[in-house]
Amino acid sequence: MKFAARKTQSGSELATELRAIVGSDAVLTDAVSLRPFECDGLTAYRELPLMVVLPASISQIQAVMKACSRRQVPVVTRGAGTGLSGGALPISNGVLLSLTRLNSILQIDADARTARVQPGVTNLSISEAVQHLGLYYAPDPSSQIACSIGGNVAENSGGVHCLKYGLTVHNILQLKVVTVDGELMTVGSESLDSPGFDLLALMTGSEGMLGVVVEILVKLLPIPPVAQVVMASFNDVEQAGDAVATVIGAGILPAGLEMMDSYAISAVEDFVHAGYPKDAAAILLCELDGTIEEVEDQIEKVEELFRTGGATGTWVAKDAESRDRFWSGRKAAFPAVGRISPDYYCIDGTIPRRELGKVLVRTAQLSEEFGLRVANVFHAGDGNLHPLILYDANNKGELEKTEELGNQILELCVQVGGTVTGEHGVGVEKLRPMCLQFEDAVLEQFHRLKAALDPDTLMNPGKAVPTLARCAEFGAMHVHQGQLPHSDLERF
Amino acid sequence: MSGNDLKAELIAAVESAYQNGEKLRIRGSGSKFFFGNPVVATPLDVSAHSGVLSYEPAELVITARAGTRLSEVTNLLAESRQILGFEPPWFGEEATIGGTVACGLSGSRRPFAGSVRDFVLGINCINGKGEYLSFGGQVIKNVAGYDVSRLMVGALGALGVVCEVSLKVLPQPEVETTRVLEFDDEAARTEMIRLNCLPLPLSGLSYHQGLLRIRLSGTENGVRAAEKQIGGELDHEGDVYWQDLKEQKLNFFFRNQSLWRLSVAATAPALNLDGDCLLDWCGALRWVYTDDSPDAVFAAANSMGGHATLFKADSGWPQGRFSELEEPAKSIHSRIKSAFDPKGILNPGILYEYC
Question: What is the arithmetic mean of pLDDT over B62-87?
Fold first, then answer.
C-alpha cells in the first residue's frame, strides 16, 4: 500500500517544500534539467528521477532527508556519477540527491596526516591539495580525476595500488552520516578505533543504502621517495600468473601489479604507443615504491624472478618519464578498447589468483560461444579481473547477449571461490549474480541489517542486495536470457 | 588439514538457546575473558572448533576455524616467512584466532600496517537465531554485500558466534630492528609525529619514561638507511620490548590497579590525568594507570577526539567499561544487535546494556 501511496503523491508539494530548504535553483524538475542525471557511468541503464536536489550544506541535507522521510519518498544519493554499476541510477518516483555542491576541503592537518573533506571533492584533488606537504591519499580508482570521495566511500573504491595500500575502508578514519530520518551521526573518530560496532566499516561500500555520507576524514600517507616499474612479457598467460605468485611468495609486496592479455596489449599499443611488446601473450607491470634503498633491494629481485619465471623480456622504468609511459598503456586500457569497439562492458569479478589460468581459458571459450570479443586487464596482485566485453549497442539484442556473457563470467568467478565485484559495486548491474554468490539466509540478514538503519527502505531502494523474490525471478529470467525490464526496480 | 569440525554442534546449541531464550557467553580459550563488561550466562565453548582450513602463501590468505590457536597460525605462517600484519596480542598461550577477531585488538604495528579488521576478508558465523552465515570471502578485493565481516570485528560476539575466519597475511619483513632515543614527554610526542610524516619503514613508535623506541621493518638496505637517518642507539633487547609491550609483560603493567586504554588522536597533547602513561601507536594509544575517577578518564579521552576502555578492571568493577555512545548511534547499535540477535542471547550486555 505504501508504494501505491508513493505513486499517486504529487511531486510538486515536495518540490515546494524542498525549494524552501535548498533554494529554488537547487531543485530541478523539468525533463531537460533532469536528463544529465538519468544515469551514472553505467549508461546502459537510464531513468529520470522525480526531481534532482542539490543541497549545499549538511543542515540542508538533514532537512531534505526529514522531508522525504516524512513523505515516504525514496532518495538516491549521487556523487560525481562515475560509478560503473548503476548505484546512482535514479528512481522515477524518488529524489536524486546530488552532493556536487559540497566540494570543499575543510581542513588539512599535516601532523595528523589527515584531511577533512566534503563528499563532492574529487579523489585526485585531495592528493593535489596535500602534495606540497609530501603527502597523498592512497586509493586511486582509474576515474580519480572525476570521481568524488563520497562516491568512493559508498563503493569502497580501490585502484591499482590496493594490494599494498588497501581500499577506501583502510584509508578513512571518520564519517559524518545523515540518517534516513535526517539525524546527523558521526562514525569512526580521529583515533585509530572507536567504541561499539565498527559502523565505519559498515557504511563504507554500503552503496548509499544506509545513510548519506556528508563529511569524510581521510588518512594521508607520506609520498614514497621512489617508485620504479618493471615490465615483463610472457608467451603464456598462465605463466604470467605464476610469475605473480612467485613474486608475492618471495615476500615482496608491490605497490601495483597489473596484467594485460594480448588483445588488450594490441588495443592499447595502437592507441598510446606505450612501448608494449605486441607479440606477447601477456605482460606484467610491477611497481615497487618506498625509499631508494628499499626499491633498489627489490627491483632486481623482481626482474630476476620474472626472468626465471619464463619472461621473454623485461624492462625497467627507472625514471618518472618512462614509468609514466609504462603506466599510460594500462591506464588507457579502457578508452583504447572503447576506440576499437562501439561499446564495451566491464566486468569486475575477483578470483583467487591460482584460478587465473582456468578462468581465462573458460572466458575465451565463452567469448567464442557468444561471438563477442573479450579483452582482459587484471589487477593481478589482488586477483581483481576486468574482462572487457566488446559489443555494439546498436545491434539488436547485443547488449542482452553481452550481459548474459558477463553474468556467466561472474558465475565462474563465484564457482572458483571469488566474488562478483571487487571494486565497482553491485548497484543495479550485479543483482543477479549476487543471488549466485550469497545464500538466501545471508541475503535476508543483509535486508534485516538495512532495516536497522532504513526501516522503510527509502534509501537507494532496490540496489546492492537482491530480494529473494528478485532472485527467484532471475532464476526464471535465466531461461529467457535477460529480458529484464529495468523500470520495475522501484517495486521493492 | 587437521582440527575438529564442531559446526553442527555449535549451530544446534545456538538454535536451542534461541528457542528457549537462554543467554549464552561465548568463550574461546578464555585468554581475553577479562575484556568487555562481565556477562553471566551459559558458556558456549568454541575453542574445540579448530583447524586451519586453507593457506596458500602466494595468495596471502589464511582461513581457519575460530578455535584454532594463534600459536598454530603463527607457526604455520612463519614456515613461509609470513605474518599476521596486525600483530595480535595473545594474553595466553592458548589464544584463538576467533577470540582475536571478536576482541578486535591489534599490536604496535597497527598504525603502519593496519588493524585486525583491516586484514579480515571473510567471516562465517552463527547469528542469534542459529543461522550459519558466510560473509565476505577469501579474496582481497570484495565489495559484494554489506561488509558484515568487518562489522563482526571487535563486536565481542554480540552479533554472532565467529566460526571461521579468513585473513589477509603479509610477508615477514626481511630485517627488523629497534632504535632507542632519549626524550622528555613533550619532545617525544613531537618526534613521533615528525617521524610518522616521513617515508620511513616504521613498524613501531612507543614512548615511556624518557625512552622513545622506534622499530623499523623492511629490506636490509632500507632499514640500514633509516637507522642512519633516525640516529639513537640500537636497542639490543628491542624484540623483547615489543613482545612484552604487546603481551603487557613490561614492568609498567605489573600493578594492582585498573588499567585504562585510551585511543586518541596521535597529535593529542599529554592527558590531563594523574598517574603513569605509556604511549604506543605513535601516541594514538595510551595505556594509563590513574587514581582519577572513571568519569575523568572518559572525559579526557573524549576531549582528545578518542575514547577510553577500562581494559583490565580490579575486582568488583561494575558495567560501563567503554565510552558511552551518543544518539543516533546508540539506537542504531541496538537495532543492529536485534537484526542479528533478535532475542539478545549472544553475550548480552558485553559492550553496552543495549547491545
Answer: 98
Contact B284 A191 (CB under 8 A): yes
Distance (Å, whole) CA A412 – CA A433: 10
CB contact under 8 Å between B306 and A191, yes or no, is: yes
SS (H, E, C) A345-372: EECCCECCHHHHHHHHHHHHHHHHHHCC
How many residues in chain B? 355
Per-residue DSSP letter, B32? T
Q: Which DSSP category does A457 fall into?
A: -
Give the single-character DSSP code of B4: B
Note the pTM of the prediction, 2 decimals: 0.95
Measured between alpha carbons, how far is A436 from A420 in angstroms, rounded to an integer? 9
Contact A201 B153 (CB under 8 A): yes
The residue length of chain A stands at 492
Look up residue A4 and give its three cell numbers.
501505491
Average pLDDT rounded to a whole number, residues B326-345: 98
pLDDT at A480: 30
Q: Is A11 helix (H, G, I), strand (E, B) or coil?
A: helix
Say what the pLDDT of residue A335 is: 86
Which chain B residue shows the shortest CA-CA distance from A245? B58
- Pairing, β A75-78 against β A95-98: parallel
Q: What residue in A sits closest to B102 (Cα-Cα)?
A: A197
The answer to whether B145 and A465 are in contact (CB under 8 A) is yes
A112 interface with B at CB cutoff 8 Å: yes
CA-to-CA distance for A93 and A75, rounded, in angstroms?
9
Of B115, B144, B285, the CB nearest to A437: B144
How is residue A469 annotated by DSSP? H
Chain B nearest C-alpha distance from A235 (Å) = 22
pLDDT at A408: 95
Q: Quote the pLDDT of residue A179.
A: 98
Residues of chain B found within 8 Å of residue A296, distances taken between Cβ atoms: 221
Contact B219, A293 (CB under 8 A): yes
Q: Which residue of B has its CA nearest to A206?
A: B146
Closest CA to A345 of A261, A408, A270: A408
- Separation in Å, CA of A375 to nearest CA in chain B: 21
Q: How far is residue A454 from each of residues A179, A211, A366, A461, measured CA to CA in Å?
A: 8, 8, 40, 10
Residue range A98-110: mean pLDDT, rounded: 98
Question: Which residues of chain A lie closer than 8 angstroms to B328, CB-CB?
Answer: 179, 183, 185
Interchain pair B333, A196: CB under 8 A: yes
Kindly list the residues from chain B whose CB atom is less than 8 angstroms away from the CB atom of residue A206. Answer: 146-147
Q: Around Cβ B76, how many Cβ atoms within 10 Å?
A: 18
Q: Say if residues B141 and A162 touch (Cβ distance below 8 Å).
A: yes
Backbone φ and ψ for A164, nearest 5 degrees, come out as -90, -40
Closest CA to A313 of A227, A235, A261, A250: A235
pLDDT in tens, A360-417: 999 999 999 999 999 999 999 889 999 999 999 999 999 999 999 999 999 999 999 9
Q: Which residues pair with A217 in a beta bridge?
A: A116, A174
CB contact under 8 A, B147 and A169: yes
Task: Give the Cα separation of A93 and A489 in Å (integer).
Answer: 11
Contact B338 A183 (CB under 8 A): no
Dihedral sign for Cα atoms in the order A359, B64, B146, B306: negative
What pLDDT shows up at residue A320? 87
H or E element: which one contains A136? strand A135-136
Give the other-Cβ count within 10 Å of B299's Cβ: 16
Query: Among residues B257, B260, B239, which one has the least CA distance to residue B108?
Result: B239
Q: Identify the residue whose cell numbers are 561472474.
A: A410
Cα first-last separation, chain B = 36
B189-239 confidence digits (pLDDT tens): 999 999 999 999 999 999 999 999 999 999 999 999 999 999 999 999 999
- Among chain A residues, the shortest Cα distance to B157 is held by A197
